[in-house]
Amino acid sequence: MVSLTCKQMGMSGCNFSATGKDAEEVKQKLLAHARSAHADVLKGMKPEDLSGLQARLDALLARR
Ligand SMILES: [Zn+2]
């Protein structure tokens, strides 16, 4: 099982935790969560911030 919390992604104050059988599943779950729960945050982000977020997600998951 792989898991990653929203806090690890830099969203302090959010207790969401995504778990899945592999990194890809966790990534999809976290992105889906972010799109619904943090839509306002994502909307305020520049494209480079968004790719930075994706890179951070990949880096965190690659360590498992
Ligand atoms: Zn969250």
Which properties best describe this structure?
64 residues; alpha+beta; binds zinc ion
Structure description:
The chain has 64 residues and is α+β, with helices and mostly antiparallel strands. The protein has helices at residues 23-37, 39-43, 47-62, and strands spanning 2-5, 17-20. The protein has one domain (2-62). It is globular, with a radius of gyration of 11 Å. The N and C termini lie close together (10 Å). The mean pLDDT is 92. Bound molecules: zinc ion. The site of zinc ion has 7 residues, from helix 1.
Q: What does the overall shape look like?
A: globular
Helix content: 55-70%
**Strand proportion:** 5-15%
SS-based class: alpha+beta
Total helix count? 3
Taking all residues together, what is the mean pLDDT? Answer: 92
Biggest sheet overview:
2 strands, antiparallel
| Count of discrete structural domains | 1
Number of strands: 2
Whole-number radius of gyration? 11 Å
Bound molecules: zinc ion
The helix/strand series, from N terminus to C terminus, equals EEHHH
The CA-CA distance between the termini, in Å, is 10 Å
Oligomer state of the chains in this structure: single chain
